[in-house]
Design goal:
The structure is a homodimer. Chain A is an alpha/beta fold. Chain A is about 45% helix and about 15% strand. Chain A folds into 2 domains: about 120 residues, Alpha-Beta Complex (Aspartate Aminotransferase, domain 1); about 230 residues, Aspartate Aminotransferase, domain 2, CATH 3.40.640. In chain A, β4 and β5 form a beta hairpin. The relative contact order of chain A is 0.17. At the A-B interface, α1, α2, α4, α5 and α9 of A face α1, α2, α4, α5 and α9 of B.
Amino acid sequence: MSSLRPIAFTRGVPPVEAFPVAEVADCAASVLREDPNILLQYGKSSGYLPLRRWLADQHDVPVEQVLLSNGSLQLMEFLTVELTNPGDVALVESPTYDRTITTFCRNGVEVVGVPLEGDGVNLEALAAAAEQYHPKVLYIIPDFQNPAGVTTALAKRRAIVEMAQRFGFWVIEDVPYRRLRYYGEEQPTLFSLAPDRVMQLSSFSKLLSPGLRTGYLLGAVEVVGEVAKLAEDTYITPALPTEGIIYEYCRRGLLEENIARLCDLYRPKLDATLAALRRELPGAGYAEPQGGYFAGVTLPENLTTADLLVAAGRANLTLTNGEGFFTEPPERVFVRIPFCSLSIADIDEGIARLGQIVRGKR
Amino acid sequence: MSSLRPIAFTRGVPPVEAFPVAEVADCAASVLREDPNILLQYGKSSGYLPLRRWLADQHDVPVEQVLLSNGSLQLMEFLTVELTNPGDVALVESPTYDRTITTFCRNGVEVVGVPLEGDGVNLEALAAAAEQYHPKVLYIIPDFQNPAGVTTALAKRRAIVEMAQRFGFWVIEDVPYRRLRYYGEEQPTLFSLAPDRVMQLSSFSKLLSPGLRTGYLLGAVEVVGEVAKLAEDTYITPALPTEGIIYEYCRRGLLEENIARLCDLYRPKLDATLAALRRELPGAGYAEPQGGYFAGVTLPENLTTADLLVAAGRANLTLTNGEGFFTEPPERVFVRIPFCSLSIADIDEGIARLGQIVRGKR
């Protein structure tokens, strides 16, 4: 057994200091006393109307284009059912969020990866895949991508929605990290560039709390209506008091200051991650994230994923198997670093252990 | 337009006076302050452990046999995926809960109804259907059935689980109304009679609040484990703060007194319903419910469902289309009376209007 302290580079969860506990508890008591006959009752499958209205105002869309659910993965499941049939092809960035691959596969959809570069997907590969596979959807995380940390450049955003129009596929744009920007300037969403071709998913998991399980969908009213019908058939109504808590939190104007606080909390962790990567893994390949939860690192040496996982385990460093983010095994070993959940000491020490493994010192 | 006041005999929702608002709000603030790092974080797909433990104690099963989800309909969806394949047959009581029929059908399962009598399904018809269709599951609501109000007699419970063993099908026992008993004595659950063949569903929707969307599953640890995996793939974690609120409410010992209060609230409504049926619809067929939410009435005259709905609409009485509770159109017109949600004045007046329609006076 290693005597090193255990460090986990695994799930992208917020650190506990991210949670504004007292405010959330106060919002809960307050909104439940204020609106109990709605929050404690069966309701519409599209979710708590005041929060839908708040989101509609924020995004400047009619409320009919906004639907709430028990987390955005549940919405990904509903969109898969509504926008694809078994045997259809979905395109994803390669690498991408592993649970999206699982969702498509469980619904019988063939998943084809399009190589992700430092500024978004390779456009030639995307066009070729669209030609070859006639995909029904492209799933994309354009801001601070999970797992690679990449943000899609504006020119690529425009090219992607243009291809969606030309080839007739839907874009599912997943933007849970978008507001967690520590450096640089925001790019327009794909939804804003092509509101009739893009369904946008997001959630309050990274901006307030994952346990509240509130995701939301913005997009074409016909698709939102179909998802509402499927949601009603699946669970009648999403959990309402948690949506009420979030509404009350937003209504009090606390969300923007919480986002600013989270950016201040996470920015030094990103800085520490990039500094440690430069110091410990000079030959590795990675995009420098400007926000979000993750840095994605392609290792420089001729190491296999299996070797890495064994060596890391011996060094008390738990890694997610990087192959899970790909539709086909990648050529080089990929490591995701979920820096938000880690202390700076663990970021430094964990990346140092990775460097030692790569240099054959462990 | 009718000048009569509108009355709705439609959804089985609790009346607003059922909600113990102040206690729920207080439990919310308290549990969120007490256990925020669990309740606001991602967690296990099987739900909030303290509530699972509380339920395990209540039902005298190991905690591994208990799983929580966002309402019991979501669990019905998961069980359908786990226990059946498209093309399989499921048996249901005829009539049965309409959303269960929808869930089976959406998953490609053929639904076959077994006639429901005043003391449970007709056993000869059940045996014949088991012989003929080799069903994978039987879905049954043995206590205060939705929509018929029937409670399955003990001898039939024993016979049903014996058939499940003999023919090798699963029983899904749905018991959301079980604790709402206003008269008579509780019968053993099917789960207690055959814990290896019966998966039990229930929820806090009728005992505390539907908006909290907390259903639970009890049963074989292998099936519970498979459902937990599917739940994780679908939504990662169920909504946790609502489960925490319920746990705190139960921990404080408030649930039993709330159930007693609800029974006192609903018993006079059942009494009024049965008195009005005797008075206004002497030729109708119905079981006399001893609890729950519903009385199910088969009308005496040669009236079609379409005629009834039109006449009721003219009398400002909104009815659920009774045919939705059947897999094949019933021979006689069926009306569900969700008495809990109604005032006694509306029960009296609504059933009086029904009687007038049946007697051709409207």
